[in-house]
Amino acid sequence: MKTGDPVLVKAPGELSGFDTAGSVMLQEYPGQGEGLVSDPAIKTIFADGNRALVLKYKSHRVQGETLLVELVDIRRPLGVTLRYTIDPETGVRARSASVRNGDRRAVRVDQIASAVFTLPVGDDYRLHYQTGCHAAEWTGKDVAITPGADAAGKPTRFDRPR
Predict the structure, then answer these.
(1) Distance CA 143, CA 62 (A)
(2) How far, in Å, CA of 94 to CA of 102, rounded?
(3) 116-151 residue pLDDT tens
(4) How many helices (H) and strands (E) in the chain?
């Protein structure tokens, strides 16, 4: 793929009337709410026991090689800042997330991830990475990317490396 080439994305298959927008829409950083049925990036419990967190884009800014994206909940004063940084020498991208509570009441964070990846429908994704121990630190690996959990929420495992 060259810069400027179109990205071809398959539409999700077998949608039904039970699929809410939150469960089929690709989201950069989903919270636990709005009908999301996959594992969210962040799970919270507010002081009143409510768990619904629906994050929407508020703003962004660029600071040098870093992009900061601000997300806010649609009903409560809770926000998430996503930080994307690119090392200009290596092209390595880093991603982090931080949460800020704008309410005087406590919010419990049960789960938080620096990133989640919602890929377009497909069955041929592969992860290429390097790993190893002493004298073999840069051993290349290539594994299939499979769903993170089955329908019952039980974690799945990667296929064996090729």
Answers:
(1) 34
(2) 26
(3) 876 766 778 888 888 888 888 888 899 888 766 655
(4) 1, 8
pLDDT average, residue stretch 97-112: 95
Domains: count for the chain: 2
- If asked whether residues 88 and 145 sit together in one domain, one would say no
Judge whether 89 lies within some domain: yes
Which residues constitute the domain of residue 156?
121-162
Same domain, 34 and 95: yes
Same domain, 67 and 108: yes
**Residue with token string 């077998």:** 14
- What DSSP letter does each residue of 20-77 carry, written as one string? -HHHHS--SS-BS-TT--S--SEEEEETTS-----EEEEEEEEETTEEEEEEEESSSS
- DSSP 8-state secondary structure symbol assigned to residue 90: T
pLDDT tens digits, one per residue of 6-15:
666 555 555 5
Phi, psi of 49, rounded to the nearest 5 degrees = 90, -5
Residue 57, C-beta contacts closer than 8 angstroms, at least 6 positions apart: 69, 70, 71
- SS3 of 125, please? coil
Tell me, yes or no, whether 133 and 72 share the same domain: no
